[in-house]
Amino acid sequence: MSVPKIFLLGIDGATWKVVDRMIALGLMPNTERLIREGTRGILNSTIPYLTPVAWSSMLTGVRPSKHGIFGYNVMENREGMIIGLLANRSKIKTPTVYDMYHQLGKKIISLNMPMSYPPSPDDGVVITGLMTPSRESTYFYPDDLIDELTAQGIDYRIDITVAREGEAGLDERIRLYLADGARRFFEDLRHVTEEREKAVHYLLGSKEWDLFQINFVSMDRIQHYLWDHIWKDGPDSVVLERIKEHFAYLDEVTGKIYDKVKNEALLLMCSDHGFGDCKGNFYPAVWLKQNGYYTEMHSELTPGLIIKRILKSLRLSKLLLRFLERSGKTVAKKLIYIGTSNVSWKKTRAYVYSTAGVRINVKGRDQFGIVQPGEEFETLREEIRQKLLAITDENGQKIMKAVYTAEELYGSTCPDESPDLFFEFKDDQFYTTYYAVTKSSVFLDKGYAWRQGDHRQDGVVLLAGNGIARGKRITADIEDILPTILFIQDLPLSENFDGKIMKDAFTDEFIQKRKPQDKQFFERGEVETPDGDKGDEVIDRLKGLGYI
Ligand SMILES: [Zn+2]
Hints:
Blueprint: E1 5-11, H1 16-24, H2 29-37, E2 39-44, H3 51-60, H4 64-67, E3 73-78, E4 81-86, H5 97-103, E5 108-113, E6 125-128, E7 140-141, H6 145-151, H7 170-177, H8 179-206, E8 211-216, H9 218-230, H10 238-261, E9 265-270, E10 274-277, E11 280-282, H11 284-290, H12 303-312, H13 318-337, E12 350-352, E13 357-360, H14 375-389, E14 400-405, H15 406-410, E15 421-425, E16 431-433, E17 444-445, E18 453-456, E19 458-464, E20 472-477, H16 481-488, E21 493-494, H17 508-513, E22 519-520, H18 536-544
Parallel strand pairs: 1-8, 1-9, 2-20, 5-6, 5-8, 11-16, 21-22
Antiparallel strand pairs: 2-19, 3-4, 6-7, 9-19, 10-18, 11-17, 12-13, 13-15, 14-15
The structure holds zinc ion.
């Protein structure tokens, strides 16, 4: 074996806190063996540690300041409306692993990677993941791939249903989904995962590949809905039994995949972020409003009025205009509701911009800016930072761990469309941010009964196979994944990378055998959202997971 293949096993939301607990209970023997024989570590996610932001760094080897994804939406300030268009691959500004492998003449199989939608025919064998609008969109290549899987008896799904069917409101649908010991949820989860596993084994045996990448979403979904159950003492509840059963099943999946590929490939297992509990919801727009930084107009903004205003805006793409015209009020309302607000710009000095960000309304930069750049901007930003840091809960406990300026996080390369401040909660005072909520009377509340866990920065990484150091512990950053993959396969690195090669994970012998790492320029391949794509299904899915 001169140049090994790579199997990248993405386990969305995996954290050692939970995996180690399951290993200690004897439920994950395969993972335990891989840890013993390989190298494990903490994989620090991006800030903010949200799925689309983190996977964009994984797919590009660069930090958010370069790829330009800061949340579930890419924000645009148009004609006095803040519009949050759904983040997807067409918004990533830098070349992705798909572009690089195509330009290097190498082959990828990629299943369910978040932010890989929309795909390109040049990607190889690809089925896209989170942020895919619906099964009506072009979400796979080659054209006959899903038919081929169906002919093998595989019922491939992009994600669990998150209780999308039925007439009841979201809370009620999720309550039913999680009723009876979360029976329907676990059945759904198991079905989606089993079919995906079948697809892996079929494709491993029938297609050529240099890099095989897949993302399993079970851990993320279990931990969002049922985090508290994992830690309950006393006799196991039905829910905890089902959680354990699913973790044991995932371990079996990992073991089977590893045994199948280990003679020709290295296994690189990783998660996009870690996990922890959450205390409730935080509404930053309400906080800004109560502190006098953000003002809304008195008139209620109706969907009809919103559409009218949007249509008036000549700066919007023709594609979006056509879509809004065709799609009718309901869809249009859902699409633009996110991040849309009825802002009184003349009285607004700061507003919410993306999931964990605040933006100052700067003259000359923001469309209706009123804050002078320079000293006025700096003073105001520092004032808001200090006030955010001072926020306390009902018991007088501070909730913020840190508030960063864009330059502190990303250096001078931060683009103009980034938030100016990013906030991060304390580990034991964690709140889920709902940035589109402006109408609440409080900025902190207990949140949803069905949402028990939320993301943390510490994801996992585990490498195993020939050439990987035995029993080693490392710490790495999520943007290190792609440079490390290219290093393993003796391929040139991008001159644009922020990430580094995880050299500590390899034996000296393996490193000595690698070619010197050339750097090269990669082209960003064009991907376009196909005309007529609807965002409503992905919005429902994100809402059902408590993301927006
Ligand atoms: Zn995730």
